Amino acid sequence: MDIYTQASDGVVLHRLKGRLDNESTGKAEGTILGSFADPAARVILDMRDVAYVSSAGLRVVLMAAKRARSSAGRFALFGLPSAVQEVFDISGFSKVLAIGAEEADARRLVGG
Amino acid sequence: MTATALPRRIERACCRDAADIAAALDWLEAALAEAGCPPSRAAACLVVAEEMLTNVARHAWPKGVVPGVFALSAGIWRGREGLGVLISTEDDGIPFDPTLCEPPDTGASVEGRPVGGLGIHLVMRMTSWQRYRRRGGRNHFSVFWRSASPPD
């Protein structure tokens, strides 16, 4: 899992590449949750190059969503490949998380 | 490239650490690619295998215990409806039947959801058949995953 982070216009954007799986979530968890160190942070995950997400990856995504809610922040994702979308649908994440098709959608969802 | 002759059965011994589980998934991914399964479709099969392996690795033995038996196998064949994979784990850990797990509440809000507990649910929902057996002091858990044929 490679993570490229950009911050602009008050929004932290993490571009993820590879598997968000059991082996990679330690790094992803530290980087993504670290984005919520400041209150009311606005954080976006670019999922377009994520090969797959397992339950270990879902755990990190849910922790980020919880962190956003508890810190008056905003959190959104965009560009879920079909394999990732399937896992989000089965887990019910598709119904409770802010998910956009494109980056512009995600920026709107976080108020960016 | 010519796809590997099918049906094919492969088996690999596993360790409990995350790096070895990742290596086992790489090994399965390569076998699926050799069978002509594109990465976008293989991803779902790899999710299933990862959940099965990590569940055994984390829970089958007390912390620090080196398994006597921990193996992953896959039977791969091609049918009229696409590629089929019988994924199996075998371990000599404590008895555990994944098919008896209660499904999580997937309709819960972000605040109301516990973190974790989705792995077995993914396995059960992403496969069309599951079977657990306890034989000879070992857990045998098998699932059938199918990749639909790509559109013509």
Structural features, described:
The complex is a heterodimer of chains A (112) and B (152). By secondary structure, chain A is α/β, with parallel strands linked by helices. Chain A has a single domain, classed as 2-Layer Sandwich (Transcription Regulator spoIIAA), CATH 3.30.750. Helices cover 42% and strands 33% of the residues of chain A. Chain A contains five helices and five strands; from the N terminus they run ββαβαβααβα. Chain A has helices spanning 25-34, 55-70, 82-91, 93-96, 103-109, and strands spanning 2-8, 11-20, 42-53, 74-78, 98-100. A five-stranded mixed β-sheet of chain A has the order 1-2-3-4-5. In chain A, helix 2 (55-70) links the parallel strand 3 and strand 4 (74-78). The longest helix of chain A is centred in the middle third of the chain and has 16 residues, at 55-70. The radius of gyration of chain A is 12 Å and the shape is globular. Chain A starts with a strand and ends with a helix. Chain B has 152 residues and is α+β, with helices and mostly antiparallel strands. Helix content of chain B is 30%, strand content 29%. Chain B is built from three helices and five strands. A five-stranded antiparallel β-sheet of chain B has the order 1-2-3-5-4, with helices on one face. The mean pLDDT of chain B is 92. Chain A: Belongs to the anti-sigma-factor antagonist family. Chain A: This is Anti-sigma factor antagonist. Chain A: It holds the Pfam family STAS.
